[in-house]
Amino acid sequence: MIPAPLQNLLDQVVGNNAFYTAKFAGRSTFETLADIPFTTKDEWVEDQLNNPPYGTNLTYPIERYTRFCQTSGTTGKPMRWLDTNESWAWMLDNWEQVYRASGVVPGDKVFCAFSFGPFLGFWTAYDCASRMGCMAIPGGGLSSVARLKVMLDNGVNALCCTPTYALHLAQVAAAEGLNLVGSTVRAVIVAGEPGGSIPATRAAIEQGFGATLYDHHGMTEVGPVTIPHAEGLQIITESYFAEVPETDESGLGELVLTTLGRVGSPLIRYRTGDLVRLRAEDGVLLGGILGRADDMRIVRGVNIYPAAVEAVLRRLPGIAEYRVRVKEVGALTELEIDIEPLESQSASERQQLVAGATKQLREAFSMRIPVALVESGALPRFELKANRWVDAP
């Protein structure tokens, strides 16, 4: 039996949306969920390449579409995504749930610290704040110091950014002598990376701001999916049909989503690549997003995810930033890690930092991973998704 909200979406899409009409061979009714084929990113990427500029996953005439977004393109060619007013309003409805769960109420001042380019980023967060009756303050085109001063001068109550950028803002504030801990900021709402669900990263951000961190997640192609939850993340179940069709012995598996209200450009049984432990009865992702299926590296027979490395390194308070260099040595994959210390660290403290990182990594992964110091300011800073894992020559 197909769940009624999913069947309603199928009824609206098949026959009107060329992508899904062809994919399902004109069929809109299915006996079981397993009869509905998955949608993969490769499919809609290929569709856009073959049918530029927007592909065929459009349910309505092009004149109905009023919003344009584009992926960051960090793993390939940037891809475009269009929305109708109705689909955009549906995403704002979801973002309102994120705000409500984070304690944001009408009359609050919300600062969005991102570049306001075509990447979906926090555009929906910005629009939703205004619609809710909050003062929405844009942070595009400003330096980190300027953003901090805008936040402090205007009595901002909630900050929206990535976990990486929140850490960076806290470090900049400390270096500039700006009192974030004593400010009016009470909520730091993060997305875009798994850091918000990593205890050490969460603790570092909360300490730096003197505020509570609230995590959620989403993607350009599906919109805002979850709200904060004490045990991880909570799927917005009235907006998304979520499943984890296959799991390992620990319950870990790939999250598959159907966007029930984004009718103009839907995704049906979409393989997100996010690795989660889903508690089916209430839609809670225990521990949040635990990794990405395509991010895993096998190093000397050990499966290593970027989030696991971050969880180790963020327990060391003297690290300002880090980079993981991936080397292919014959048929083997090796890792080397560069760490950039805080400027306040003395020479002896920096050496202790290297020793501590080496020890913690060895205990976590049962192998020695070389750790090297780099000069302060040597590693890049990231406003949107961080790209700390690089291929070494």
Q: Which features does this protein show?
A:
globular, four-stranded antiparallel β-sheet, 23 strands, 26% strand, 393 residues, alpha/beta, five-stranded parallel β-sheet, 10 helices, 29% helix
What does this 3D model show about the protein?
The longest helix is centred in the C-terminal third of the chain and has 19 residues, at 347-365. The strands form seven sheets. This protein has a five-stranded parallel sheet, sandwiched between helices. A four-stranded antiparallel sheet has the order 10-11-16-15. Strands 12-13-14-17 form a four-stranded antiparallel sheet. It has helices at residues 4-13, 18-23, 41-50, 85-101, 123-132, 144-153, 163-176, 199-209, 306-313, 347-365; strands at 65-70, 80-84, 109-112, 135-138, 158-161, 187-190, 212-215, 218-219, 223-224, 226-229, 232-235, 240-243, 253-259, 270-276, 278-279, 284-286, 291-292, 297-299, 302-304, 319-329, 332-341, 371-373, 389-391. With 393 residues, it is α/β, with parallel strands linked by helices. Helix 4 (85-101) packs across helix 5 and helix 7 packs parallel to helix 8.
